[in-house]
Specification:
The complex is a heterodimer. By secondary structure, chain A is mainly α. Chain A contains 13 helices and no strands. The longest helix of chain A is centred in the N-terminal third of the chain and has 32 residues, at about 55-85. Chain A is globular. Chain A starts with 7 loop residues before the first helix and ends with a helix. Chain B is an all-alpha fold. Chain B has one domain: Helix Hairpins (Orthogonal Bundle). In chain B, α1 packs antiparallel against α2 (about 30-55). Classes of the chains: A mainly alpha, B mainly alpha. At the A-B interface, α2 and α3 of A face α1, α2 and α3 of B. Chain B: It is a multi-pass membrane protein.
Chain lengths: ~350, ~100
């Protein structure tokens, strides 16, 4: 049951990917719901891959939450259909669109509805954790761009940024820390979703680029607990701190780039208090990220140790380190060009 | 057209399902059964509103197919949970307590 090769996993991965692509490419709420269900059906067997008891519990919780929220989603969209007899011109009813938005937030694990996510990810495999925190969020984030309900989205984004960064401070489990940091990053994504949703997806892609090498290295070189960061091992003292600080959003790294783009866009639309609160949230979480980097750096007698652990991820890490000098200018040029086409 | 009576009937079944789901604190099998009530309300309201207005009853077939898939998925997860824990009590889930 443990480390056998299952050929059926290729099928499950295919179903998972196809479900999300179906949601992304469909014009109809019913087919979007079908895509979400297909995504869930492909993902749950992948969660159960090792057959441990904790994995069975986590997959049960995940199944209950996801199927509940997608059921509420399709029911609310049916009520909205009955309200104005069309699947396409929707969301003139305030309460029903709020209901739909809250079901999608439950799917994503946003702040008032986030309690299932850290419970489930405790002791989880890093690969499955990565899939939950990135790939499973793609379809609900895309569906959130179709719903326009600004006030509640602002409230949810502020709550998830502040609450995710406050809850990090007391944790010792690595997976839970990464989960809470992803909740606070989700707040940043949700803050942009009504104003300029392409920036949301730039932020999302940057989060994926940071978290691929980070989670892989944490998987290889630490235990589930943070105190293992202080032990003597072959961890690279330059790369992992740079990735963690990139999650925190310190200037020359990739995480700062996406935060800078969102900051400029928020200031241009005059959401001053909101930007202040979002940055307060990241400031609180910066304390913990700096704590983690200090735990790694303190024991380093040699900063540049030569080991081959970063070999497959070198290009992604280079992108992370030096992107701010290239990508900010590139994205600005692209946005300016798009603006000139639109006007 | 705001809330017609057929939709109210389906919504009533759905709300009863949500209430039943909220009060299941002992067995996981009961949670899965209350998901079936939710799916029943969904089928009912799709049949009486969307299917009836547009003569597109095949939509209900799609809903039923996915409901059955979801139910069988939940049952298989329940089997794997029982094989590792020995029972299906909610109180024996230890992931929350770690």
């Amino acid at each position: 049951m443990n480390n056998k090769f299952f050929p059926s996993n290729f099928l499950f991965i295919l179903i998972m990917v196809m479900g999300t692509t179906m949601t992304l490419s469909s014009p109809h709420w019913l087919t979007m719901w079908i895509g979400l269900e297909l995504n869930l059906m492909g993902f749950l067997p992948l969660m159960n891959i090792k057959g441990k008891s904790l994995e069975a519990e986590a997959s049960m919780k995940y199944f209950i939450i996801q199927s509940m929220s997608s059921s509420i989603l399709i029911m609310t969209s049916l009520i909205l259909y009955n309200y104005n007899m069309s699947w396409y011109s929707m969301f003139n009813h305030k309460m029903l669109s709020t209901m739909m938005l809250l079901s999608l937030i439950l799917k994503l694990g946003g702040a008032p509805l986030h309690f299932w996510l850290p419970n489930m990810t405790k002791q989880m495999t890093w690969l499955i954790l990565f899939l939950i925190l990135t790939w499973q969020k793609l379809a609900p984030l895309f569906m959130l761009t179709l719903i326009s309900n600004l006030n509640i989205l602002i409230l949810i984004s502020l709550m998830s940024t502040l609450l995710g960064s406050i809850m990090i401070l007391n944790q010792t489990n690595m997976q839970v820390i990464i989960t809470y940091s992803s909740i606070s990053h989700l707040g940043w994504m949700l803050s942009m979703i009504m104003i300029n949703n392409s920036l949301t997806f730039i932020y999302f892609i940057n989060y994926i680029i940071i978290s691929i090498p980070l989670m892989n290295m944490l998987n290889n070189y630490t235990n589930n607990y943070t105190y293992t960061l202080t032990h003597k091992n072959k961890i690279n003292k330059l790369i992992i701190p740079s990735l963690i600080l990139s999650l925190a959003g310190l200037p020359p790294l990739l995480g700062f780039l996406s935060k800078l783009l969102i900051l400029i866009s928020l200031m241009q639309t005059n959401f001053i208090i909101m930007t202040l609160l979002l940055f307060m949230g990241t400031l609180i979480s910066l304390f913990f990220y700096l704590n983690m980097t200090l735990m790694i750096i303190v024991k380093s007698y040699f900063l540049f140790e030569n080991n081959n652990m970063t070999k497959p991820y070198e290009s992604i890490i280079m992108l992370n380190m030096f992107s701010i000098f290239v990508f900010y200018i590139l994205i600005n040029i692209i946005i300016k060009y798009a603006m000139t086409i639109l006007h | 057209m705001a809330m017609n009576s057929e939709l109210m009937l389906g919504l009533y079944i759905y709300m009863v399902g949500v209430m039943v789901l909220m009060f299941q604190w002992k067995h996981i099998l009961n949670i899965l059964l209350s998901f079936e009530i939710l799916m029943l309300g969904l089928i009912f309201s799709f049949l009486l509103t969307y299917g009836l207005y547009n003569n597109e009853y095949y939509i209900v077939m799609i809903i039923i197919v996915f409901g059955v898939c979801e139910a069988s998925l939940g049952l298989s997860l329940l089997v794997s949970l029982i094989r590792s824990h020995g029972n299906d009590y909610v109180s024996s889930l230890k992931l929350y307590k770690l």
